[in-house]
Amino acid sequence: MATTTSLSYDNTGLTSGTISYYKGPATTRVGAGPAPTHASPPAHPGPRGPAPLRLTARGAKRRLVDGDIWSAELAKVYLDQIAAVEPSVKAFIRVTHDNVAKYSTKVDREMQAMRGPLAGLPIAIKDNMVTEGVTTTCASKILADYQPVYTATAVRQVWDDHVVMLGKTNL
Questions:
Q1: SS3 string of 26-95?
Q2: Pick from 40, 7, 51: nearest CA to 111
Q3: How do beta strands 164-169 and 122-126 pair?
Q4: What is the pTM for the complete model shown?
Q5: How far is the first Cα of the chain from the last one, in angstroms, to the nearest whole number?
Q6: How far apart are CA 144 and CA 159, in angstroms?
Q7: Are 103 and 111 in contact (CB under 8 A)?
């Protein structure tokens, strides 16, 4: 059963987004031939262990690998925390809800193939690191609309490990 969570943060100026993740066992089609190759992730056994915000990166990765939590759920926990504290902390210049929804769902579907040490973990990128497709301002009004045409090598290397970028942080 697909579960969709809509996110909307009006008071912080953050954009809205939707995260879809799967809860429950994948359905079996009787007499319809083999299951499609883009099958749902395995059934989620429910939360165990400490709350996701209390986990270290190693602990979060272990729970992802063990199937105790999905990347979309972990990302949603962090997005909810960002929304709760961002008005007073002002740590993020841009929260990339669309990227979070897209990549966390992709990681959940393909977790067995994505064996990188960071696969599925949410991260934030400093806004002085250029990221193709995401506005990079370096916290400057002069660069408010700058769209980089390439991605910094350091960012590309972590993206190649299939991380989920939550957004761009203030300097």
A1: CCCCCCCCCCCCCCCCCCCCCCCCCCHHHCCHHHHHHHHHHCCCCHHHHHHHHHHHHHHHHHHHCCEEEE
A2: 40
A3: parallel
A4: 0.69
A5: 41
A6: 24
A7: no
Which tokens hold the place of 144?
Answer: 């408010």
Report the relative pairing of strands 164-169 and 92-95 from DSSP bridges. Answer: antiparallel
Least confident of 18-22, 93-97, 118-122, 139-143: 18-22
In tens, the pLDDT along 71-121 reads 999 999 999 999 999 999 999 999 999 889 888 888 888 876 767 789 999
**Encoding tokens for residue 165?**
């970028």
3-state secondary structure of 7: strand
Chain-centre distance for alpha carbon 9 = 17
Select from 64, 41, 70, 78 the least CA-distant residue to 117: 64
Q: For 101, left (φ over 0), alpha (ψ -120 to 50), or beta? A: alpha
Q: With DSSP H G I counted as helix, E B as strand and the rest as coil, what are the percentages for the chain, rounded to 5?
A: 30, 15, 50
Confidence bin at 4 (pLDDT 50/70/90): very low
Written as one letter, the residue type at 76 is K
In this prediction, residue 111 carries a pLDDT of: 73
> Half-sphere exposure of residue 16, counting CA atoms within 13 Å on the CB side?
5
